[in-house]
# Entry
Amino acid sequence: MFATYLIGLREGLEATLVVSILVAFLVKSDRRSRLPHVWAGVGLAVALSVLFGWLIEYTSTTLLNTSEERELFDAVTSVAAVVFVTWMIFWMRKAARSIAGELRGKLTEALAVGAFAVTGMAFLAVIREGLETALIFYSAAQSTAGGAGRNAMLALVGGIATAVVLGFLLYRSALKLNLSKFFTWTGALLILVAAGIFKYGVHDFQEAGVLPGLNNHAFDISSVLDPSTWYAALLSGMFNITATPSVLETIAWVAYAVPVLVLFLRKPAKPATPAKPTAPADTPKPVEPTATDAPATTPQRA
# Structure
């Protein structure tokens, strides 16, 4: 359940930081009357995210009739979740320093329009995190626990609750947290979780008959990684590492995890500072006027 807890913690803290930036801006600018509109947008985003998560689960368990259809649906949602996770991790690393200024700018524009614009702005700022959380949670729960059951849901709620508490303490300046290191470590762990989700998606494509090689195992380490042991359950629950994966599953896990981790952990190159232009050495200096250069004047008659 650590994977779903991590998803709730990471996504929840991002959403909490977004909300705290909006609230702090309104409080400091003495516009507390607009706070209910922000909370209305946040509540609407949360409700729609829950509805989206329920719709995914309902589609898989009720609307699809055959096991092949369900496997194919789970495979597609898994690949989509991996795409969202990868995009979110790299986007946050790039936009972390500028997101506060962008949110304040958008909120200032919304305040000039009216209450509905403020609600819509808060809704759009949070809904992305909510939809991502719903999709990633479903895929992670399916890949690591065999379904979005009670334990997976409790782990997700626990992660979100932890994120809300951390966000509140940061807002009240009661806690100092190095957000850069936090997002780096959680991002690296999420990449490994996403690798497991991608591996599970390949497995579902194989079970649906889209990809071959379901029974073509890359290796068998059941003697070392006994599925009944606690550490095997931990590795499977966190990163979907199993004792007898297929060749395609193994290739998918390695092909995603290794290059994405390398790109993520590599320090971004600092932009080069443009050199100040200097005057050419042979540029003639302006000549100061001398007494001989002064214009002649006609003496006035007495």
User: Anything to note?
Assistant: Residues 285-302 have pLDDT under 50 and may be disordered. The radius of gyration is 29 Å. Residues 4 and 140 are 7 Å apart (CA to CA). The chain is about 70% helix and 0% strand.
